[in-house]
Amino acid sequence: MRFIMALMLVFASLGVQAKDTPQPEVIFFDVNETLLDLNSMRSSVTEALGGRDDLMSLWFSTMLHHSLVDNTTRRFHTFGEIGVASLLMVAESNEVELSEAEARQAIVTPLRSLPPHPDVKAGLQALKEAGFTLISLTNSSNQGVKTQFENAGLLSYFDARYSVEDIQRYKPDLRTYQWALEKAGVTAEEAMLVAAHGWDIAGAKAAGLQATFIAREGKVLYPLALKPDYKVNTLPELAKILAR
Predict the structure, then answer these.
(1) Residue 24 to residues 6, 128, 142: CA-CA distances in angstroms?
(2) Which of 4, 21, 87, 226 has the maximal Cβ count within 10 Å?
(3) Dihedral angle at the C-alpha atoms of 56, 135, 158, 78, nearest 10 degrees?
(4) Are 122 and 203 in a shared domain?
(5) Which range is the signal sequence, renumbered to this chain (predicted)?
(6) How far apart are CA 109 and CA 147, in angstroms?
(7) What's the pTM value of the predicted model, to 2 decimals?
């Protein structure tokens, strides 16, 4: 009995899927920070904020916060628009002079030119070769994510691209995950979300999906939410886990 318990603990630590957990048919991917490296924007955002490198994370969290304000007030704006507005807010609250044109220049072009993390292409290729349907599910606009994938060389890996622009509800609104499931023609049990954000994992799990947290630098899980099925450091690591 002790041996069996020990094996179960080992499997759990390795992220090995339980036998009664169905293999996902569709894998949804968050985009910004999960697949694409936001650090490349640091120089333009830092310059716009008067050299304040420490305000980069505040800007991104402010952008996410106000996307949820749009959900609540039902006044949808694109992620790029919210990003510009959030940068202006952070600048004003820290007494940095910044015009709307300067904020847009610091965000829009760099956001559409983010490079993929080093592990991404190999991981996506392995998952695609294993037969999984790969779909991006992003808070970015339809045109925005298309341009991002073109510039990052990721277009060919995905079977489809879904944007919250079509439902006008930002993640982690449960309706967004439910809409994605209906659009993909699968049940929650047949789908998995991969994300580097605790709030996205929380939303996916609450909607009934399987979830994998990819631990990008500085990213942590929300401890009060349902736990992800897996926690990995790279996409090839996830591909190995799912290759049962």
Answers:
(1) 27, 13, 25
(2) 87
(3) -40
(4) yes
(5) 1-18
(6) 10
(7) 0.89
End-to-end alpha carbon distance in the chain: 25
Residues 47 and 140 in one domain: no
Q: Report, as an integer, the average pLDDT of 144-173.
A: 98
Quickly state the pLDDT bin for 6 (edges 50, 70, 90).
Answer: very low
Give the CA dihedral 122, 128, 131, 137, nearest 10 degrees. Answer: 120
Domain for residue 4, yes or no? no
pLDDT for 20: 57
65 and 183 both lie in a single domain: no
Is residue 100 domain-shared with residue 120, that is, in the same domain? Answer: no
Q: Given the structure tokens 């716009």, which residue do they identify?
A: 48
Q: Are residues 142 and 188 in the same domain?
A: yes
**What total of structural domains would you count in the chain?**
2
- Over the chain, what is the mean pLDDT? 92
pLDDT digits (tens, 9 = 90+) for 24-62: 999 999 999 999 999 888 899 999 999 999 999 899 999
Residue 14 lies in a domain: no
Task: Report the C-alpha gap between 111 and 148 in whole angstroms.
Answer: 8
CB atoms under 10 Å from CB of 216, counted, come to: 18
Residue 5 has pLDDT above 80, yes or no: no
Spatial CA neighbour of 37 closest among 144, 152, 158: 152
Q: Which tokens hold the place of 139? A: 């808070």
Backbone phi, psi, residue 49, to 5° = -100, 30
